[in-house]
Structures are given as C-alpha cells and as structure tokens.
Design brief:
This protein is an alpha+beta fold. The chain contains 5 helices and 5 strands, in the order ααβααββαββ. A 3-stranded antiparallel beta sheet has the order 2-3-4, with no helix packed on it.
Amino acid sequence: MAAKKAAAKKSAAKKAPAKKSAGAKRKPNAAFMKELTPDAELAAVVGEKPLPRTAVIKKLWDYFKKNGLNQGQFINLDDKLKAVYGNKKQIKMTEVAGAFKHLKG
C-alpha cells in the first residue's frame, strides 16, 4: 500500500506545470507582424498601405460589420469582396483568411 502512495506522489509531482514569472510577456511572432502589401482587389476593401496579417483580418471584419454582411456563420459577399474571394454569394467565417493570397511580401 505504501508503494502505491509513493508512486502516486511521484507521478503527481511530474505532472505539475512549471510556473511562469508573472511579469513575463509573450513575445509576438514576427511572421504575423510582417507588413504585406495588398493587391488591387484586397486594397479596395482594406486600403493600400502595407499591413500585418492580423490587421488585414481586423479591417475585413470591420468592413463586414459596417456593411451588415455577417449573418451568423456566413458572410454575404458584395462586389468588392467577390473580387477577393471568387464569384460566390457567401463564405463561411472560417474562410475569411483566404484573403491572405492577395497579400504580397
């Protein structure tokens, strides 16, 4: 019985996560912060200035909300967005990042 308790204490000690210091901040990934230039189709929606990918997604969502295009899990596409995502009527929320193919390094 004592051997089982000792083994349980040993395995519990191994599984305890290492504590991080409270003041340590997470370092941003440089690939996400690299500014990329949108092509003409995407620039019509997010602007012509070079932007990091995170800012492109934020500007796309701002555009969706401003124009009332988001409908639950789907985004209705207007003429500007059809140039970016292809000739579809709507896309799923998970397909929003497909606009990255219109960014140039």
